[in-house]
Write a structure and sequence with these properties.
Layout: E1 4-7, E2 10-12, E3 15-17, E4 22-23, E5 26-27, E6 32-34, E7 37-40, E8 44-47, H1 55-63, E9 71-75, H2 81-84, H3 87-93, E10 98-101, H4 103-110, E11 120-122, E12 128-130, E13 135-140, E14 150-154, E15 159-163, H5 182-197, H6 201-211, E16 218-221, H7 231-242, E17 249-254, H8 260-272, E18 278-283, H9 289-297, E19 301-305, H10 315-327, E20 333-340, H11 348-357, E21 361-362, E22 368-371, H12 376-394
Helix pairs in contact: 5-7, 5-9, 6-7, 8-12, 9-10, 10-11
The protein binds flavin mononucleotide.
Length: 397
């Protein structure tokens, strides 16, 4: 049994997953949590559940606080299986429970589970659900990050159950932000935003606007720790990220077979080292897409390098560009570079095409290319390009 008190009569009853390292491709280097909450009032409500394999922990946690028959409401804010996965077993055990969700969620749940025997209470933003002394209100947050996504607000305790918004894949024994190293928590929140939410910046912005006039003492997300001491800090960051505001930062990433492209990346890096500019350089063999997404979020200018391989680019470069294109970072300036053997028109040009499709502002109309090993002249061009990237980034200082 592992429960925590969030506020009087509000409990955390979720599961801390110390071991998960790959969450649908997201590299969860610090594990995760699936947060479920229980409100004990005249009526008992559970807010969201945990990933299916961990249902026993959820049931034990609930059983330690109330009997299953006392559970009257199971609120489902989001149908994705990491949060809804244990709802079928909850509905089986809690015979008197009604599922509370919006109409889109009802339909999404029915496409995941056999919901025929479930009793539904469909709510919208005008609904208020009284639990006795407390009430629940609902805020639709469509496409943040699924169509049915919703947040639940408990005004009497000033708690916003924000679902995936403000979440972090971060396993910890502490349940609150102030119990953990806040630099780490904020980094994990940024990683989560970059990899899960970046594409939906506009929708997140409207959630921030919608919730700006309600009193919040605790933001209780579905993953990671709850925000209480650092609410201002996380909201300020979310605002900045939704506005796609870059900082004075240059990101260089590349792959290489025989080091020619790597030498070019080194020269770009050298050229970009201007005062006031942060420069980061990654050989894609030593990092992963999750990390590149974090680094991309606030970068003003990006250099993407690849050697030509079989008339195209390296698979890792393709993987990262496919991922980034999906996440749709905005307002980036970019260049392409790399080495080829005999066919000048592929490889680096293919990368340039993708950067165009990503609506990047191309600082150079052509990629910087080297036939095999770069000459001093090519390396000088790379240094100049690095300087150009840095000067572009400096505008955001
Ligand atoms: C397996 C393999 C496939 C290649 N395919 C092409 C190609 O289709 N077109 C081309 O111009 N060069 C091709 N090359 C040559 C490389 O692009 C060239 O050696 C380049 O300098 C490698 O850059 P790097 O040192 O950064 O890996 C190929 C090389 C290898 C090893």
């Amino acid at each position: 049994m592992n429960t925590s008190v969030v506020r009087d009569n509000v409990y955390w009853v979720g599961y801390v997953d110390w071991d998960v390292r790959d969450f649908h491709g997201y590299s969860t280097t610090r594990g995760s949590t699936y947060n479920s909450y229980l409100i004990k009032d005249k009526d008992v409500a559970i807010i969201d559940s945990v990933k299916a394999p961990y249902y026993k922990y959820l049931l034990d946690n609930i059983r330690s606080l109330v009997s299953f028959d006392e559970v009257k409401y199971v609120v489902c804010n989001h149908a994705e299986p990491d949060h809804s996965g244990s709802i079928p077993i909850l509905m089986q055990e809690c015979k008197n429970a009604v599922i509370v969700c919006n109409d889109k969620c009802k339909s999404a749940l029915s496409m995941h589970y056999d919901t025929k025997s479930w009793k539904f209470m469909v709510v919208d933003e005008s609904s208020t659900l009284s639990l006795g002394t407390c009430t629940l209100k609902f805020i639709n947050t469509p496409m943040a990050h699924w169509p049915e996504s919703m947040a639940t607000y408990l005004p009497e305790k000033k708690i916003l159950f924000s679902m995936d918004g403000f979440g972090q894949h971060f396993a910890s024994s502490g349940r609150f932000d102030f119990e953990e190293n806040i630099i780490t928590v904020l980094h994990e929140a940024k990683k989560y935003y970059a990899n899960i939410v970046m594409l939906y910046g506009k929708q997140i912005k409207s959630v921030l606007d919608k919730t700006s006039n309600i009193e919040i003492d605790i933001i209780a997300p579905s993953h990671g720790v709850m925000w209480s001491k650092y609410i201002t800090e996380i909201i300020e960051r979310y605002r900045r990220w939704t506005e796609h505001k870059p900082v004075a930062k240059v990101l260089i990433f590349f792959d290489t077979m025989w080091k020619s492209t790597s030498l070019m990346a080194d020269a770009i890096y050298e050229g970009a080292l201007l005062d006031g500019v942060m420069v980061k350089k990654f050989d894609l063999k030593n990092t992963d897409i999750t990390n590149i997404a974090i680094e991309t979020l606030e970068s003003a200018a990006i250099a993407v390098g690849t050697p030509t391989l079989n008339k195209s680019f390296m698979p890792k470069v393709g993987e990262v560009l496919t991922y980034l294109k999906g996440l749709a970072p905005q307002g980036k300036s970019a260049i392409a570079f790399g080495s080829y053997g005999w066919a000048k028109k592929s490889g680096q040009h293919d990368v340039l095409e993708i950067l165009k499709q990503m609506n990047c502002n191309l600082l150079l109309e052509e990629p910087i290319q080297s036939q095999y090993v770069p000459t001093p002249e090519v390396l000088e061009k790379c240094r100049e390009a690095g300087k150009l990237l840095a000067q572009t980034a400096l505008k955001y200082k």
